[in-house]
Protein: Sulfatase
Amino acid sequence: MKIILKLKNIILLTSVFFFMAVSCKDKQEVLEDENAQSQPNIIFIMSDDHAYQAISAYSDKLIQTPNIDRIANEGMLFTNASVTNSICAPSRAVILTGKHSHLNGKIDNLSKFDTTNVTFPQILQSAGYQTAMFGKLHFGNNPKGFDEFKILPGQGDYYNPTFITQKGDTVINGYVTDITTDLALDWMEHRRIPEKPFLLMYLHKAPHRAWYPDEKHYKEFTQKTFPLPETLFDDYEGRVAAQTAEMNILKHMRLSYDNKVEEDVLKRLNITDGGSRYEYNRMTPEQRSSWDKVYQPISEDFEKRYPTMDDKELMEWKYQRYLQDYLGTIASVDDNVGRLLTYLDDNKLSENTVVIYTSDQGFYLGEHGWFDKRFMYDESFKTPLLIKWPNKITPGTTEDEMVQNLDFAQTFLEMAGVKAPEDMQGESLVPILTGKKELWDRDAVYYHYYEYPAEHAVKRHYGIATKEYKIIRFYYDVDEWELYDRINDPQEMNNVFNDPKYAEVVAEMKQKLQEVREKYKDSEKLDNHYIQLYNDKTHNNLED
Ligand code: SGN
Ligand code: CA
Structure:
């Protein structure tokens, strides 16, 4: 009896002490503790030029990406996510500001980002989030709203890259994809404040041109052969802007710069297609020696075969070389996403962390005979999007609603319970993620590409896509319209704009395009304003 009484007293006393301790806690601290529990951590993973065709959750024809797929297996796979402007820095500006290019001002890669724009990381930081960014930004200036950043200058390098940090520039030896992950893990391990929710932007340079894999993966991928896309030999009939674009694998991909044929071999073969193996020249002697063991035999083989190759054979050879290196860089991204997810598991962070995987845009992997992006055609208009949010998203869900990178800012703010500014132009994806799809009624998405005249010669164009159709207008030095029937012609080979059978659809889509342009506050006046700015040399103040 006595023992039980004693025990009761101990319990009572401990409870009193506990409540005293809580009430002694600063009110603000308590609030932060509560927020830390209710506000999820957000990890935004973005790679550069990662085609959805090269993620096995979408298609396993080319590569297995088990770690990236895990995000969809535990969350949601978006099969109809697109960008508003398929090029690097503009896409990033749209993501950060939640505004279309014509309003945030970052229309192309050539001008600096206007830092008077309000970005979602700044808002999250003010709302108590700890924020960090590692990897590629490509803005020409440093990001605002981050407690810590280590970013690549411009495009960044694969081998032994330089990073811009708050304490100055530093060169880190090794492979960029591994290093970017090391930086992110080091920040989570040593500088994360456990009482605060965090936003981590973890941004890979890979698989951007000129596609330099690490040793493990070039050894593996140079042994592989990939299926040819059905449209590899597209002749661009009926599509004027496609005819003048300069991104054809046969005609515009460079044998040394892109396909890594040694310069001496090209000299002996009398081939001058410009460029050199830039990244090779950055390697340490050890890195070069490993590289040469694999790539020298490829050059030697090419030297033997080239004299008898016709265009078809050369196209196929270049396509295989392209995919071997491109996919090799993705295999590293996948390994490193695995490292990050394992870290979250090991540190009990998985349950309260949203993980997003996306790319700054899609990419052509030989479809239409192309590499690169920029066009509103599906392979570069669409982008991969996989989101895991434990206890909110039903694992293994596939979603075909037309969502865009424009929606990310408002989505993250809503996840954090923070009100988004009225002038953001996207829509939060939270209803879709949490099974309240009836609140989502978007029926068309808007697109506008500006960087012309420029590399790859893709003409300026804007358009809208609905689930059934896509209408595009190319302008500046042409005035060309295109219409695609997305259901019957998913490869977008037949421009049916002038087909009388589609006259009614054309009229409806033109009308809708006008309405959408008005809704998003885009106009001919703004088109002309940006042409004027572009022609003014001060606009082009950045190297690509
Ligand atoms: C570089 C590439 C282009 C690529 C742009 C933009 N050329 O200029 O092929 O389209 O970047 O890419 S290279 O010869 O320098 O590799 S983006 O992803 O940054 O928009
Ligand atoms: Ca890109």
Remarks:
- The chain has 19 helices and 16 strands.
- The chain has two domains: 45-211+321-536, 238-320.
- The two ends are 82 Å apart (CA to CA).
- The chain has a mean pLDDT of 93.
